[in-house]
Amino acid sequence: MRAFYVDKHIPRILLTKTLAPLWPGFVWTPLSSARVTDLPDPPLPGPDWVRVKNQCCGICASDLSLLFVRANPSVAPSALPGLSRFWLGHEVVSSVTEVGPVVRRFKVGDRVVMDSYHYGAHCQSLGIQPGCHYCAAGNHRFCVNRSEPGRRGMGGGFGDGYVAHENDVYPCPPELTPDQAMFVEPLGIAMQAVLRRPPENGEKVLVYGAGIIGLLTTMVVKALAPEAEITVMARYTHQAEMAESLGASNILRGQNAYAEVANITGGKFFTAPLNKGIVLDGFDVTYDCVGDEETLTDSLRWTRAGGAVVIIGLHMSPMKKVDLTLVWYSHVNLIGSFMHGHSEWNGKRAHDYERVIGFYQQGKFDIEGLITHRFPQKDFKEAIRVAANKGKEKAIKVVFEHG
Predict the structure, then answer these.
(1) Residues 103 and 212 reside in one and the same domain
(2) Structure confidence at residue 237 as a pLDDT band (50, 70, 90)
(3) Per the domain annotation, does 164 fall within a domain?
């Protein structure tokens, strides 16, 4: 089994965090926290586990964050002892090659996409009965037993395959193309986030960031509320063009953004010395798909009183310079969203993947043009380089294609 992973080895993590920004190739050296290696195929850890062979896998910003150690080891989740090895690659389509004797959801040959495996262990995979209330609701990402000792999977999407509990993968309909199937997972992230505060027709919506999650969030907003007015903050021209093709009515590019926000929303912009300002009566809802100190502060200042800011972007470092005054001063609701699971919408509770697949089948999602680069697994260094330099390379989604 070819495997790509990052170990929580503190000296190597600190060394990688220090040197990788200056020398990106350091991550491929023996002194880094990352490893690319061939491991013996493990036996299935239990009778309700499956083995899969990977077909294609997208490179996600979270994979790059782990690889280059952009996360800070002082953040809260790093305290969990169960998070010690991170298998890279979760936007992956695979086929089942082996099933345990009590597996009922799948048979050999079925096509699947990764679901909760990326979160780590949970009650079902550990064999804990009865499970915690999060697992009982199908939200394994919040399992309170995730760091308990017990069975663990092996492998990830960047490698040849992996072994996982049957509840860690999700059935993929045969009518979806491999590319559509690969996008089920990131579209599930966007679906979960948007349904944390669903837009309504006629509302003014800001999607802050036009990386792949920002673009997919735009797609989901358009599908859920076709008459919403969508504005996208885009850093690069190729991102702006794609956002417009997905239904964005307005594009922000960063220069004079506060004044532009006021113009788009009909709000009032005020500024002062030593203060870049505030927009009163701005966007109804903002989806922050970057999630750092600057974007979160802007998002709060650009959202109307009583509106909402949903944090989607992954920023695994403490944020010490975020202006949270709008949370109390203007009752802006600050909402977090992590990965995918089960959501409520129109009175129905369903898996985010179920809705994504349903929207594909209804013709509401079109992924044409989102995959800009494809690489065989053997060219992983070049694939990572391109994905890490998306502006220069005009990359949107970079994909590994396994032979």
Answers:
(1) no
(2) very high
(3) yes
- 282 & 380 share domain: no
What is the rounded CA–CA span in Å between residue 300 and residue 216? 22
Structure tokens at 221: 């907003």
Same domain for 226 and 274? yes
In a domain, 347, yes or no: no
Residue 76 CA to residue 89 CA, distance in Å, equals: 23
In a domain, 365, yes or no: no
What single DSSP character describes residue 141?
G
> Rounded distance, CA 323 to CA 277, Å?
11
Nearest to 395 by CA among 244, 218, 252, 215: 215
Residue 102 phi/psi, 5-degree rounding, is -110, 5
Q: Is pLDDT of 171 > 90?
A: yes
Q: Do 23 and 130 share a structural domain?
A: yes
Query: In this structure, are 6 and 110 located in the same domain?
Result: yes
Domain boundary among 326, 342, 358: 342
- State which residues form the domain around 303: 186-342
Buried b (16+ CB within 10 A) or exposed e, 118-151: bbbbbbbbbebeebbebbeeebbbbbebbeeeee
Tally of domains in the chain:
2
Task: Burial-class residue 82 by CB neighbours within 10 Å (0-12, 13-18, 19+).
Answer: middle
Q: For 149-169, write each residue's pLDDT tens digit.
A: 899 999 999 999 999 999 999
Strands 342-345 and 348-351 turn out to be: antiparallel
What are the DSSP E strand ranges found in 15-160? 34-38, 49-58, 85-87, 91-99, 111-114, 154-155
How far is 220 from 366, CA to CA, in rounded Å? Answer: 11
Report the distance separating Cα 262 and Cα 278, nearest Å: 9
Pairing of strands 161-165, 371-376: unpaired
Look-up: residue for tokens 């239904």?
247
pLDDT digits (tens, 9 = 90+) for 40-97: 999 999 999 999 999 999 999 999 999 999 887 778 777 777 677 899 999 999 999 9
